[in-house]
Hints:
Elements: H1 5-10, E1 36-46, H2 54-62, E2 72-78, E3 81-87, E4 89-92, E5 95-106, E6 108-118, E7 127-135, E8 141-148, H3 150-162, H4 171-177, H5 180-195, H6 203-215, H7 229-248, H8 255-260, E9 262-268, E10 271-272, H9 273-281, E11 291-305, E12 308-320, E13 326-332, E14 348-352, E15 361-366, E16 372-376, E17 381-392, E18 401-408, E19 413-420, E20 429-434, E21 437-442, E22 451-453, E23 465-472, E24 475-482, E25 495-498, E26 505-509, E27 517-527, E28 534-543, E29 550-553, E30 561-570, E31 574-583, E32 592-600, E33 608-616, E34 619-626, E35 636-644, E36 647-650, E37 656-660, E38 666-671, E39 678-684, E40 695-706, E41 718-727, E42 731-739, E43 752-753, E44 755-756, E45 761-763, E46 771-775, E47 781-788, E48 792-800, E49 812-821, E50 828-838, E51 841-848, E52 859-862, E53 864-865, E54 871-872, E55 877-881, E56 887-894, E57 898-906
Parallel strand pairs: 1-8, 9-16, 14-24, 17-31
Antiparallel strand pairs: 1-5, 2-3, 2-6, 4-5, 6-7, 9-10, 11-12, 12-13, 12-15, 15-16, 17-18, 18-21, 18-22, 19-20, 19-23, 20-21, 23-24, 25-26, 26-29, 27-28, 27-30, 30-31, 32-33, 32-39, 33-34, 34-35, 35-36, 36-37, 37-38, 38-39, 40-41, 40-48, 41-42, 42-43, 44-45, 45-46, 46-47, 47-48, 49-50, 49-57, ...
Amino acid sequence: MKALVRFSVLFMLVSVxxxxxxFLNDDDDDDYVAPTGEIELSADINIAGTGITPAIxxxxxxxxxxxPSSKFKALIKLAGRKLVDSPLEVKSATxxxxxxxxxxVATGKQQVTIEVVPVEDETKPVLKTVVVAEVVSxxxxxxxxxxxxxxxxxxxxxxxxxxxxxxxxxxEDFVATVDSAxxxxxxxxxKTTLSSGGDLTATAITSEAKEVAxxxxxxxxxxxxxxxxxxxxxxxxxxWLRALASATQRLTPDAAKIDDMHDADFMWEGFNxxxxxxxxxxxxxxxxxxxxxxxxxxxxxxxxxxxxxxxTFNGTIAGLDKAGTSYSTAIDGTKNAFALTGAANQTAFxxxxxxxxxxxxxxxxxxxxxxxxxxxxxxxxSPYLELVIASRWINGxxxxxxNADLYKGSQTISSARISGGVLDATGTINLTAQPxxxxxxxxxxxxxxxxxxxxNGQAIAANQAYVFTVAFADGSQTYTYNVPALPTSYAAPTxxxxxxxxxxxxxxxxxxxSTSFSEYYVGINYVDGPGGNMGDEVYSAxxxxxxxxxxxxxxxxxxxWVRVEVNVKTxxxxxxxxxxxxxxxxxxxxSGNYRFFQLNAxxxxxxxxxxEVTVSGNQFxxxxxxxxxxxxxxxxYSATFTESNGAITFSGETTVRGAISPSGNIGLIHDxxxxxxxxxxxxxxxxxxxxxxxxxxxxxxxxxxxxxASFVPKQxxxxxxxxxxxxxxxxxxxxxxxxxxxxxxxxxxxxxxxxVSSDGKISVGPDSASEFMQVSADGNVIVxxxxxxxxxxxxxxxxxxxxxxxxADMNGNWLQASVNAGPGTPYSGTDGILVTANNGxxxxxxxxxESNDFLMADTTRDVTIGTNGLLELGSDAxxxxxxNKELIAIVSKYDGSMRNITLxxxx
Length: 907
């Protein structure tokens, strides 16, 4: 429960957007930014009355059967500037309505004008009204069914002339002052003008409006009473909160005013004036994660001397937490902050409980110029303590402990330790800076530099005191947390996890009663399997609504395991904690009809084969179609498997693993059983392949052996790399050799013909029962197997060259499998390993082989993609990445006479 805890807990309330309550009613003239809010307007427009022009009525009557009105619309204006226009619905021959229309304006008291204008000319209004609203941020102000008629129009046009005398006056001020008889007379003039086809810009109307304005006095304001010292101190505190609120909204601040509201000796949670004001002017993106829309309450002043006060808040806040959930929380600065003496040299700070809102108690000082400014709380580092009294972990642990964190601000920390409570039985815990985050100090021996488990037989108890002692260059400070009475009953929450659809997670947990609730903190991380190591964070948030005891997440990695941790924190600072794990549901990639091409690495013989495979549900069913042993033809086999994020696991098999690509079109299986090890490439059968599917230049990577009648290899395995261009029309050309063994006398045919069936079978020349060639649906991959007794046995993969590919296109997780062959014992074998690629850097882990001679150790390598998707591997290796970015094929020679073919399929 760390990460942004420092700011979600200590600075939670600084995202204040609107202020209500007795201590926040001071004048806002010194605001330097304008947070925004919304007004939701609707209007009833009435043109009934003697003298209204028949043309207007006729226009409305014409639209009675065709809403919205084609003749009139509404304009919403602010200070004469149009914000938005809105269509009008026809209600009757004398009535129009404006449905809810939302406008965004600055917070505070605002006036907007609703004008009814002809659709074809916005400059000729016929009716209007002025609406006054007290705007706050986060909660739209509703102004429903506002009346627009000739009376409101007379008031509006006269007010617009009158307000030129004093722009601070509202229409409410005008209506309260104007002679109603004059408004009635102006209304009559408006009706007369409109009846003759005129509009509100007519001279007869504007002239009379000016006369009404001239005859209406401007009310005078009472002489302001000077603020008392206490009111001035509260105003300074209020201004500071407004500035903090603006910082959370990333509004452009007035830098000078930011600087001026902080005392030169400002110190708050480790930040001096320079550092803190810099953060307020340009806060990092993750600095604030909670919004406060409103709060109510009062502040209490404690006078230290004539120029120093401690201001403590007591009230209720409401807003939105990081999860977007609304909440309302009571804050008491006497309980939720360290007690402040107001002295500049205060070094000992204490509080009861651990729920701390550092803003809720601060020092305000008067400068030599008479201005009251925020001096902070004199705390030079920011401590965080959490008392975990109930837990339930997936590993069975159910003990108690504390989370202890210390955060550095502007001040250099010389040393730090935490002591007290049950820690005194084991000795002081020294805190140090994290290696990867030197601003965060914790216990190096604890998980994540935070968790300190209670010694056996020890427990957190009431009246214990846990003390941070922190040394700085100019002295030390202590921060004491006194443990309050424990709850009479408590338990770790129960978590319920479900994954209702691929990539989705629903998490729910036992709710805490609102009477004792402070917050839920939820953290979700990927893990590398059940009970495994934690990986990337998926989500974390403080939830401040007791009834919001659930979260839903989408877009998670399908098939990946996640660990969800829920912390329930009470008002007095105790924490109950549970974690649980779940595998995220995934879309079935591995499904449909495939051709499965195998290459074995047995010491006794060499064989290649092809099976037709059907994958349905979790069943893998195959029938052999190509094999050197005639007895194997048309034999069937099957297996049950599970698929997880592209990894394939076969039930009951301890020496087999597989992978299926993201598209589901390419698969790889490695079987390292000692009696007959093999690798196999799966190609999903197309349904609409044709000659045009083969179109481009391909590199072919061939691994072959000269074999006897029993398919025992006669000599060391060999490899060949060739290139061929398929023209997409049934012909090929430019068949050439890139690499062949010195003893190989093969000369390719430069040109020829081919054909492709709808299921991807490629024919070059007459069909043969001892060979098969297949193309993938996207045309990027070709597989070719061939055998002939007393001749050869070969396995070939063709990769279409693609000039758009770059090194980063390899990024992701892969399964690698190889067949290796050479002189000596064993003659041949397989190996496989998991590969994670990141911009050319490969991490290889978890090697598998039937022989220790071929087993790969964990290692790292660097690989670059060159031109046309070809891998830059050096002079003794050749390979390429397919354009679908799901297959890599490599042939290589090493240690003189060793040869191998390596295939990688992205999971």
